[in-house]
């Protein structure tokens, strides 16, 4: 089976852009990726376009990718639309890898784009309402509340303002983790403070102001134990990657020195399991499969980008990826093991909490950061000697875990 490489990446700034359309942001990211790869649009054999909420926000369903890509000359080839909640972009990336492995072409495009911010707050926050089983949403909400039973919510620790329903999801996960392992709100705050510090050096990040642990704890509450800086913002943005086979690199005359190998790309859906059975969390199982496919282990990873839609997510995912034992994610974060310069740098981009989270673009945004790191081009946020990198991207909720998760391993 052919080896697959990333030969070009591009990403827009993430943020709130009232004056930009999906087409605008898609065009910007794709143009940057093609330029980085030194490939023209007519050399692309297939494209995978990821988006989660344009149908909800704008009423554009069914052919989003064909519409967004045609004006930049990407037409007459297979264009596949991918929707898989917050894991949409990493799912599209995995499908692009599979497209090339199946010898359907030599050069393929994976792109994710999302325009989420709106002055209509009700419309904006309701975009997340179908990320779980809508046929029994009240039962799902109660099950999540029950996860944290026994963990007291201090008075005044819930926002009176609207927020995404998924903050309640993560709060349920957080309280269960606190009850099971003794994880503290301060440890979650340490994750957020670290990521906000990292984002200072990322010119594409939505927020670029450092915060201390005390500042994170003193910030406005969302829902206990989460405060505002612990949560990913609503974001607009796009990211793209150009992938090639080894033969495609030769055929197109590309520079192999800048190509980054895709060592593993795994996609799993969730399963029914008891909440306390962390060892069978879908991300844990996907990570084990990815490490086996790549022929390496967690000890070989230089840098990671994980799905920190809240700080709680990062604590859970560094445990799932095998960087620490279950229950040790919080203490390790407080000790500084996951900061740049620490034992295992996590989210040098600033993560979703600070870089931003345009859900249909997030997974390829992670790939953009890791390719930049592996090329040694990350500037002040560079992880020295980065050789192998891992990305974890999850989406939706089914049962007591994400509905879908992707784990991707890249290397020099």
UniProtKB/TrEMBL annotation:
The record's section on SUPFAM superfamilies has: Thiolase-like (SSF53901)
> Where does the Thiolase C-terminal domain start and stop, copy by copy?
282-398
Q: Which InterPro entries match?
A: Thiolase (IPR002155), Thiolase-like (IPR016039), Thiolase_C_2 (IPR055140), Thiolase_N (IPR020616)
Q: Which organism is it from?
A: Pseudooceanicola atlanticus
One MF term from GO for this chain? Answer: acetyl-CoA C-acyltransferase activity
Instruction: Tell me the ranges covered by the Thiolase N-terminal domain, including all copies.
Output: 4-207
This one is known as Thiolase
């Amino acid at each position: 089976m052919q080896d697959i490489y990333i030969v070009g990446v591009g990403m827009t700034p993430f943020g709130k852009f009232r004056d930009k359309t999906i087409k605008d942001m898609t065009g910007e990211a794709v143009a940057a990726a093609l330029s980085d790869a030194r490939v023209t649009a007519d050399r692309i054999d297939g494209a995978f376009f990821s988006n989660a909420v344009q149908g909800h926000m704008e009423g554009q369903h069914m052919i989003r990718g064909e519409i967004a890509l045609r004006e930049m000359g990407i037409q007459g080839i297979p264009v596949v639309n991918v929707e898989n909640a917050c894991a949409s972009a990493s799912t599209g990336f995995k499908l692009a890898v599979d497209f090339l492995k199946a010898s359907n072409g030599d050069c393929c495009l994976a792109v994710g784009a999302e325009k989420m911010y709106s002055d209509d707050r009700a419309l904006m926050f309701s975009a997340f309402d179908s990320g779980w089983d809508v046929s029994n949403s009240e039962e799902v909400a109660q099950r999540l509340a029950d996860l944290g039973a026994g963990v007291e919510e201090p008075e005044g620790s819930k926002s009176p303002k609207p927020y995404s329903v998924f903050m309640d999801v993560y709060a349920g996960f957080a309280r269960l983790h606190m009850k099971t392992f003794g994880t503290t709100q301060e440890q979650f705050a340490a994750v957020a403070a670290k990521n906000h510090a990292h984002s200072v050096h990322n010119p594409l990040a939505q927020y670029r102001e450092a915060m201390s642990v005390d500042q994170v704890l003193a910030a406005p509450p969302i829902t206990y134990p989460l405060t505002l800086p612990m949560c990913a913002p609503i974001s607009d943005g796009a990211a793209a990657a150009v992938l090639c086979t080894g033969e495609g690199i030769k055929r197109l005359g590309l520079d192999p020195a800048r190509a980054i190998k895709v060592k593993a790309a795994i996609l799993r859906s969730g399963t029914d399991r008891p909440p306390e059975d962390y060892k069978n969390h879908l991300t844990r199982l996907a990570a084990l499969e990815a490490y086996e496919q790549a022929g390496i282990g967690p000890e070989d990873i230089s840098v990671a980008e994980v799905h920190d839609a809240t700080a709680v997510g990062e604590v859970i995912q560094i445990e799932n990826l095998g960087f620490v034992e279950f229950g040790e994610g919080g203490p390790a974060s407080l000790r500084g093991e996951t900061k740049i310069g620490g034992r295992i740098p996590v989210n040098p981009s600033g993560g979703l909490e600070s870089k931003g989270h345009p859900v249909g673009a997030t997974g390829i945004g992670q790939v953009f950061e890791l390719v930049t790191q592996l090329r040694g081009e990350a500037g002040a946020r560079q992880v020295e000697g980065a050789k192998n990198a891992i990305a974890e991207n999850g989406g939706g909720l089914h049962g007591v875990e994400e509905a879908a998760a992707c784990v991707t391993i890249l290397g020099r």
